[in-house]
Amino acid sequence: MSERTEKIMLAQNETLNKGTMWLLFLFLGWSYGSMGKVGTQVLYYFTLGGLGLWALIRLFTLNSAIDDYNNKIYMRYGLNDLIR
Question: What are the DSSP calls for the chain, one per residue?
């Protein structure tokens, strides 16, 4: 197995799946914690999603947040050509 293939496999293990993230967000309000922002996730829960406003904004920003997180993973492994 080539080094590049190993890097791709490692990166894919760390990336987030959009479908799974959407299900977690819609049913549990979980999104920040999966991206390494546990403190923000706790604050989100304590404020009840910013009394709904924060949750509403997150509905529109979740896809781009997942893409940004995944792109950072690919960059860390030097797989800049896989960035979307």
Answer: --HHHHHHHHHHHHSPPHHHHHHHHHHH---TGGGT-HHHHHHHHHTHHHHTHHHHHHHHHHHHHHHHHHHHHHHHTT-GGG--
